[in-house]
Amino acid sequence: MPARKSPERPAVFSALLLALSLSACGPGQPPVADAPLYGSALTGEFDLVDKHGNQVRNTDFAGRYQLVYFGYAYCPDVCPFDVQRMMQGYNQFAAAHPDLADDVQPIFITVDPERDTPERVGQYAAAFSDKLLGLTGTPAQIEAAAAAFFAHYQKMEPLADGNYLMDHSRAGYLVDREGMPMALIPVEETPEAVAAELERWVR
């Protein structure tokens, strides 16, 4: 199967820089100034369903951090490695800081709701860790969730066998205890890089 075309990393950061440029400081801004996504237009909002079909909203994790990645279960090349590095990095962080790790919820959100049913996305998440929560929803719900993180995705032309690939941005997002996106997590690098960023921000 041909490899899915992976978007260049600068495209992800261009979208995030745009989000930052669209923001304005206001009384609702958090006091911590060094988190790079604070004050941006990213909202981190979603209203999706888990493997049981139960509704899951971003507000359900109030008081906890969220470690979010957008991908899809049928991704042949990029997503499996990104998610693996994300969870390996999380596990390294958990080994060093078990109490803090309990306050971090890893989340996988599909960008392919046509094929990624609740059952399918649940199976996919479980293949990496029982800590990883897989979420899906209607096309409109997925579109809204991706927009809240400035995550890009697009369905590609069908392959000869009728299957298709999804072109999508690759970035991990850390959302703070108040539900505000605060930093990018380098899931495209190494587990050690993921663990280091969690070490830096999770308190």
**What's the alpha carbon Rg, rounded to whole Å?**
16 Å
- Give the number of domains: 1
In spatial order, strands of the major sheet run: 5-4-3-8-9
- Largest sheet geometry: 5 strands, mixed
CATH 4th-level superfamily: Glutaredoxin
The unreliable regions are 1-15, 17-31
Q: State the helicity in percent bands.
A: 25-40%
CATH class: Alpha Beta
CATH topology label: Glutaredoxin
First and last CA, distance: 43 Å
- What's the helix count? 6
> Count of DSSP E strands?
9
List descriptors.
203 residues, alpha/beta, Glutaredoxin, 5-stranded mixed sheet, two-stranded antiparallel sheet, 9 strands, globular
Written description of the protein model:
The chain is of the alpha/beta class and 203 residues long. The protein has a single domain (41-201), classed as 3-Layer(aba) Sandwich (Glutaredoxin). The chain is 33% helix and 19% strand. The chain contains 6 helices and 9 strands. A 5-stranded mixed sheet has the order 5-4-3-8-9, with helices on both faces. Strands 1-2 form a two-stranded antiparallel sheet. Helix 4 links the parallel strand 4 and strand 5 (133-135).
